[in-house]
Amino acid sequence: MYGDLYGDPDGPAVYADDDRPISGRQVALIDLLDRLLSGGVVLTGDLVLSVADIDLVRVSLRAVIVAVREQMDEQWALDLPGPAPLEGGGTDDGPGPPV
Q1: Is residue 7, in this structure, part of any structural domain at all?
Q2: How far apart are CA 34 and CA 67, in angstroms?
Q3: So what's the pLDDT on residue 3?
Q4: Cα–Cα distances in angstroms (integers) from residue 35 to residues 47, 70, 99, in the given order
Q5: Segment holding 71, helix H or strand E
Q6: Residue 32 lies in a domain
Q7: What is the spatial distance between Cα 56 and Cα 73, in angstroms, rounded to a whole number?
Q8: Residues 16-48 pLDDT 10s
Q9: Which of 25, 39, 88, 94 lies at a 20 to 30 A Cα distance from 66?
Q10: How many domains is the chain partitioned into structurally?
Q11: Per the record, which residues fall in region Disordered (predicted)?
């Protein structure tokens, strides 16, 4: 049960079902992003540029980041069709059935 994602047998193991807080264990960046995107993340922030206690520029950031595939219903899932049929009954990847 030991080893990290890159095959280091002496490195700490990282499991998704581990209940310890993230600050108490090492987590690969891809695991952190996967967990955040599967549940969604809301980012908020403010940036104020001021000179001599006079606010010159204010930037407010509000963003919702979520994995689209996690939130889509099956009826709205993308159904990628195969090659388009040609006039002779075949497709552009080969001839159709003999006529």
Answers
A1: no
A2: 9
A3: 44
A4: 27, 11, 54
A5: helix 68-71
A6: yes
A7: 45
A8: 555 656 566 677 888 877 877 777 788 899 999
A9: 25
A10: 1
A11: 78-99
> With contact defined as beta carbons under 8 Å apart, do 3 and 9 qualify?
yes
Q: Where are the alpha helices (DSSP H) in 15-67?
A: 29-39
Flag whether 56 is in a domain.
yes
Say if residue 4 is exposed, middle or buried (CB neighbours under 10 Å; 0-12, 13-18, 19+): middle
**pLDDT value of residue 1:** 42
47 is a domain residue = yes
37, with CB counted inside 10 A (0-12, 13-18, 19+), is middle
Query: Domain containing 45: what range?
Result: 25-72
Tell me the C-alpha distance between 65 and 43, whole Å. Answer: 8
Residue with tokens 């980041």: 65
